[in-house]
């Protein structure tokens, strides 16, 4: 049973919760999850705000704000945190992530059942740090799954979970979400190309993807 919240949310946590709820709802609208599958988290200082377990995202309200310390102790809210809390916390402890997005995206999950690593069908793999690995299957919500994910994420900002879905992280919630969308798109692209009878998709080399990674460092508008 979860303990009562120990304190009231700070203004920055309230704002982060609003963004988290919007992102969680977007995963449904964009077809990346069905029902309450998948989960989203964002780090604010030493507190991790997470979607609660089993609550439809369109019903989440400001009063439902749910937060835990990095050791998993609940410090905000009374709703039970997502069952994938061990996975989220493992990523925060091992990386400098500011947000984590986990989905059950259809094309990405399909690819996770077919390969050990997403074939380099597009250079945007560089945005995730290189070839996207598939973490071995483990029961959801377990420390075993969290450990598999950390290994698959080594040097990467996204991975696939076998027979399960995707995990991406980023400095911001927007970045983590964009990486999820890119990963799903690349999986859909590879499945589409690989389905053409008698043809094999042309793939990039790791060196070509690494070159793109260097170019992406200067991509976009400068502050």
From TrEMBL:
It comes from the Bacteria. InterPro entries: Aldolase_class_II_sugar_metab, Aldolase_II/adducin_N, Aldolase_II/adducin_N_sf. Coiled coil: none annotated. Residues 18-191 form the Class II aldolase/adducin N-terminal domain. One of its GO terms (biological process) is pentose catabolic process. Keywords: Lyase, Metal-binding. GO terms for cellular component: cytosol. GO terms for molecular function: aldehyde-lyase activity; metal ion binding. This is Aldolase. It comes from Streptomyces griseoviridis. The lineage of its organism: Bacteria, Bacillati, Actinomycetota, Actinomycetes, Kitasatosporales.
């Amino acid at each position: 049973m979860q303990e009562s919240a120990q304190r009231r949310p700070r203004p920055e946590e309230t704002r982060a919760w609003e963004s988290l709820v919007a992102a969680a709802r977007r995963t449904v609208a964009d077809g990346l999850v069905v029902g309450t599958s998948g989960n989203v988290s964002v780090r604010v200082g030493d507190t991790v705000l997470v979607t609660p377990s089993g609550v439809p995202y369109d019903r989440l309200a400001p009063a439902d704000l749910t937060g835990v310390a990095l050791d998993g102790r609940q410090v905000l809210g009374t709703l039970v945190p997502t069952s994938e809390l061990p996975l989220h916390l493992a990523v925060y402890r091992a990386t400098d992530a500011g947000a984590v997005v986990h989905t059950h995206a259809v094309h990405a999950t399909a690819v996770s059942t077919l390969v050990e690593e997403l074939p380099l069908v597009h250079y945007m793999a560089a945005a995730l740090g290189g070839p996207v690995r598939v973490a071995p299957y483990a029961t959801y919500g377990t420390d075993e799954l969290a450990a598999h994910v950390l290994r698959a994420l080594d040097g990467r900002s996204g991975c696939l979970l076998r027979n399960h879905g995707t995990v991406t992280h980023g400095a911001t919630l927007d970045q983590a979400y964009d990486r999820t969308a890119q990963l799903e798109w690349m999986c859909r692209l590879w499945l589409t190309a690989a389905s053409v009878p008698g043809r094999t998709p042309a793939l990039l080399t790791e060196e070509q993807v690494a070159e793109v990674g260097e170019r992406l460092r200067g991509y976009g508008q400068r502050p």
